[in-house]
Amino acid sequence: MIEHIILIIRQGKTVHEVIDGAGMSRLRTAAVLAGLINYGVVGEKDNVGPQLESGKATQQPILVKGSLVNRLKSMEGTPFTGMVDIQGRSRPAAIYIEQGRVINAEHGETAGKKALFRIFSERGGKCNIREHSVDVGRVINAPLEELMVEASREIAWRRRLKYDFSNIRVFISTNDSEELAAMEYDSAKIQLLEVVRKHPVMRDIVEVSPFTDLETCRLLEDLRASGILVFRRTT
Description:
The longest helix has 17 residues, at 144-160. The protein is an alpha+beta fold. The protein is globular. The strands form three sheets. A five-stranded antiparallel sheet has the order 6-5-4-3-7. Strands 1-2 form a two-stranded antiparallel sheet. It has helices spanning 2-10, 15-21, 26-38, 67-75, 112-121, 144-160, 177-181, 187-198, 202-208, 213-225; strands at 52-53, 56-57, 82-87, 93-98, 101-107, 110-111, 126-131, 168-172, 229-233. Helices cover 43% and strands 17% of the residues. The protein is built from ten helices and nine strands. A hairpin with a 5-residue loop joins strand 3 (82-87) and strand 4 (93-98).
């Protein structure tokens, strides 16, 4: 549903054209569109992501910069295996490298892409490079350039956020077995619903979710648009 609306937006349609051409009720489409705008996924002048123009993807502005990224770039294509220990950040942080490629990251108790993107979003600190065997799971498997583009998208989204997640509670609004059964093969949404059941405050959901912060909010918005979740402000 969200992907279809984003596709229409990428075609340069106006708000009215999006609402009329989404193939669902105007009210439901408007709710999804409002959520995408409120959470900074789309905006008046923002691209949703890489767009196809004449067969080429538009360039995503790279917001991931600094000495840390330069060090990671210098390791690509080398046999280096070890870790980059980052001190002086908001939480203990480390990036694990195997044969010159990022394979995992830790930021506090968060791991994987989610941790890596949080590390990229912060500045400062001191990096200590340690070359040694790495005994962590390979959960990141993408070139650094691709990770930088994805992280830049998340950083830009975070800068546009208009809400305080600590003031939003999330409720599961349906026990309709047919509606929930329709998600049987969508493991991401099923996992996120389990998180919502245990952590009803959006700030906690984003923190505990196994997905990146942006992906978590996109999944939450999709579930809300489907009528499965309800968001309520506490203040």
